[in-house]
Amino acid sequence: MPDVCLFTVDRRTNPTRTWRPRERRLLELIDPQAAGGRETSVTVIQEVRVVVLGHGSALGRTLADAVTVVTGEPPVAEMCPGLLETRFYAARGVPLMPTVPACSRSSHGPKRVREIDRSHGGVREDLRARGRRHAGGGFVNFDQQVRLAIYEMTVNDGRIPSIDELAESRHVDRERVAAAYRALADAHVIVLKPGTTDIWSAPPFSAVPTAFRVNPAKPGRSDAGRWWYAPCAWDAFGVPAVVRHDVHTSRQMRDNGRAAAVAACRTARHSAAASSTSKSRPGISGTTSSTPERTSCSSGRKRRSIRWCAARHARARRDA
Amino acid sequence: MTIAQAWDPSTKWRGTRLDPDFRRPTVEEARAIFAGVGRWSATLAALTKPELDNRVIG
After folding, report:
1. Are residues A229 and A315 in the same domain?
2. Predicted ipTM beyond 0.90
3. Do B24 and A189 touch (CB under 8 A)?
4. Global pTM value
């Protein structure tokens, strides 16, 4: 038997258990009388109050929303009594929640060495990136996540999602999504149909058919079958800027309530590039310019007003 | 207005909608965007209401 024996007891209790009775029981075991009259001493190295941050807390909801947006699946919330940092920071008023690649049982079990799959690593990196972007301004708030989801689904699916579609797609509560829709409308980011929470427009996209339809540029592309409505001619130019590729715009331009033109444009981006180098741009049409000398129609004729071309297209369609 | 005149400000105005940290342009930014539209700039800038454009989501 050694003369001196030192050992450390590390006890982490769940919040559902009261600590004091267990501390008392532990100290009784080390008591000199219990130790057969031998000299004993106890030094408390660290004693931190138990704390729990549920998934219903503000941090829990924000983290769950962010994980859901990134992965498409809501995270599973589990209590982790082993993480002392949460207690340390909670005592200083800083909420903290860990994310782990697996459930806490396997993380603390005998086979605790786990291979972190790439998807989880990606989620963590994405969450860190989002956190960095919003450093100092709080984490990405729910309204922003809904706004981003609206635009991502619109670009991917070709139409603006309803509240039910978005809530189901992102596994979030419908009422929270509805509240976010209203907040975004109040901030003039989207426009709702009067008296409803249905989106009328998420500029530059329109949820209702309009005279301004925008198509992907090249036949044969994987996204060639998709198209979007724009609320107006101005927003028709904004669509390719959002979907990040060139498009053809088929625009039925209305003048005084009457169809005035149907013009097939080459890409607006190409148009912009061409206009900066040449005044005459064969193969480009579709402006509403009142300066015909700076436009040309899709037939290649130069110095001809779009209004004239529009009338010709309209006649051709009527005859057809 | 030519296609180029409409294309440039429209892409600047709408092109950030998919950015995670998107925000509406401020009045000063709106004026700068529309500055290149020539005689339309005053009209378009007048359509940007300060009380709306100063609001930021996020």
Report:
1. yes
2. no
3. yes
4. 0.47
